[in-house]
Amino acid sequence: MTDLDIREIHFLRGPNIWTNDPVLEAWVDLGGLKDTSSDLVPGFADQLKAWFPGMIEHRCSIGERGGFFQRLDTGTWPGHILEHVTLELQTLAGNAVGFGKARETCVEGLYKVVIEYLDENVAEACMREAREILLAGYAGKPYDIADAVARMKRVVDRNALGPSTSAIIAAAEDRGIPWRRLREGRSLVQFGQGVNQRRIWTAETDRTGAIAEHIVQDKDLTRTLLKKAGVPVPEGRVVANPDDAWEAAEDIGIPIVVKPQDANHGRGVFINLTTREQVESAFQTAANEGEGVMVERFIPGNDHRLLVVGGELIAASRGDHAVVTGNGKDTIGVLVDAQLNTNPLRGVSDFCPWSKIDTEEWDPAILSELEKQDYQPDSVPNDGERVLISRFANWSTEVTGLVHPRNREHVTIAAQVAGLDICGIDVVCTDISKPLEDQGGAVVELNASPGLVMHLRPATGEVRPVGEAIINMLFPEGKNGRIPVIGITGTHGKTTTTRLVAHLMKATGKFLGVCHSGGLQFGARHACTKTGDRTSGTHGVLLHPWTELAICESSAESILLEGLGYDCCQIGVVLNVGSDHLGLGYIDTMEQMTKVKRCVVDVVLPEGMAVLNADDVFVAGMAESEHCQCSVTFFSCVSDNPVVTAHLAKGGRAVFVKDDAIYLAEGDQERRLCELKAVAMPVTGHFQFNVQNVLAAVGAAWAYGLADQTVVEGLGTYV
């Protein structure tokens, strides 16, 4: 038997029985370790503490710092330890998380280990790594934890959302705007739902035009348009060959800049060139980086990156020179590694505002800069001698408050001339607090989908609210991107109720997105699928760009193995809790199944409504849950149901049957809606369930705000 056998891994991407946040749920068979408490293995607890000293911060069920270490000392089980090691590995890799649980199932030795995650690939890799670490610990074998953490960091770098996207998502979460990553490994994110959705891809939105991108990719076209609009730009032109480049340099006047016409990220850019040899050499490299080469007048000063969002300047950062100081012993290559590349702000990750300087394959622009100072990478500068490595290698100082009003105008005009809603603008000048015209400064480049990390992690100055600015542009004040969502679950009658609710809601005139076990419905069009009641069905409904009202059935299987497909709903309907699905996902009691179905109630917005079956003791009890923060409408097949009576006495709402008619009641006021026989749906065979389905649908329609007569007409025309 395999010890710590991870039988299955499920990603619960929406609200679930553990939490409303995404979690990984692993079914782990402890095997021969099922009776191995941590206090029974000599040295195991101490070894684990030495490997992961940071777990001193894990409070665990003790509720205080060092709580988990106390549990290790007094004895805890492998499933629980696997939970904490997986959490710590994610945190050490750069994805800080804290929620986890480990619960034994009805099968002895089989645990559900639940882990919060930020990225699915990272979470799974960390869990599998944690398993190997624990097996080594139990066997008393060594393990290279540093190497394990390094490997997990590489998984993060390959898969996790970058800092720009993460900042935008964090801003959306602060405003209660729902979001979903549309593809793992990509920074393509949907904010909002249905007709109200917007999308980003890093710092690019669904309204960033292809024409605008084409303009800024063509640096000569950009320069020409900006010049015509009165924005200061350097004199320059496209050149055809090295001889033409030198001729342009002579016409413009040295020093000059040689750069690709359409490259980005500073590749192939050579600055402050003064000789024909330098210009011709730079031409060859620049030509290899793009489809054309430009020569421009060199602008002295510091490089600045200004961020314009929605026509407003949001952030500005100044780039400082990268310099090393000689010691009379080490080469420039060694000095770069020791003095520059060791800076934690510099690295290969997107989370680093500065790029690591490659001392194996030197950037030709850096080699050119060194050559102008009569140096090579293997040169040894004198003690105390400063050597310029790159003029614009460090985005270091936040300077938004210093930008002169006229310069603000220049960059906002530049973004609008190009047509970019989010634009990174490179400005070179000596002093950003003075007008560009007064100091010979200029706008030298525009960038679509600009990096935001320099504004999020400045070496000096405050962090700028760039994520908030982008979200506020996408969703003006008062807008959260949501559409009304009606969630429906239960053991029996879910699909019938979903269809009936959809039929009633046609009267709203809204475009309906409906998903249930029979398929998907988009307006009048039906799409057959066997997974309409699964998360994929809900995601499809909320993805459709026309959906104005979503009506979503969720099965027990979907909730257990995937989580809900929505984060919140306006109306949540629970029909009943039966024993039919016991055993699914190791859920073996009615109380556990009730928790599964209650997920829909847990996510009803405070201003929303839960529609609950008062005739089902398990469903009725959901109204008393601490997680039920909304109003409740009970429905019952009898008028004297004690749950309904008590609820009405408190001023609550109820839908019930009395004298073969459907009644609506609120507090001490009740009104007759229609006779049961006026409802056009079958009442034979499963009469009781169909009556409950009708009452639930009426409760949902009432909660939505449909007029009584509209509901009656809908009930009479359902087929």
- Rounded radius of gyration (Å): 32 Å
The span between the termini is: 55 Å
Q: Tally of extended strands?
A: 29
CATH superfamily of the largest domain: Mur-like, catalytic domain
Unreliable stretches covering 5 or more consecutive residues: none
Tell me what portion of residues adopts beta-strand conformation.
15-25%
CATH topology of the largest domain: UDP-N-acetylmuramoyl-L-alanine:D-glutamate ligase
CATH class of the largest domain: Alpha Beta
Please give the share of residues in helix: 25-40%
Overall pLDDT: 92
- Strands across the major sheet, in which order? 22-21-20-23-19-24-25-26-27-28-29
Count up the helices. 23
Annotated CATH architecture of the largest domain: 3-Layer(aba) Sandwich
Question: Secondary-structure map with pairings?
Answer:
Blueprint: E1 5-12, E2 23-29, H1 44-51, H2 67-74, H3 78-93, E3 100-104, E4 110-116, H4 120-139, H5 145-159, H6 163-174, E5 179-181, E6 188-191, E7 198-201, H7 210-217, H8 219-228, E8 236-239, H9 242-252, E9 256-260, E10 270-273, H10 276-289, E11 293-297, E12 302-309, E13 312-325, H11 332-340, E14 346-347, E15 354-355, H12 364-372, E16 386-398, H13 405-418, E17 422-429, E18 442-448, H14 453-456, H15 466-474, E19 485-489, H16 494-505, E20 512-516, E21 519-522, E22 525-527, H17 535-543, E23 549-553, H18 556-561, E24 569-574, H19 590-602, E25 604-613, H20 617-620, E26 631-636, H21 642-649, E27 653-658, E28 661-666, E29 669-675, H22 687-704, H23 708-715
Parallel strand pairs: 14-15, 19-23, 19-24, 20-23, 24-25, 25-26, 26-27
Antiparallel strand pairs: 1-2, 2-4, 3-4, 5-6, 6-7, 8-11, 9-10, 9-11, 12-13, 12-17, 13-16, 17-18, 20-21, 21-22, 27-28, 28-29
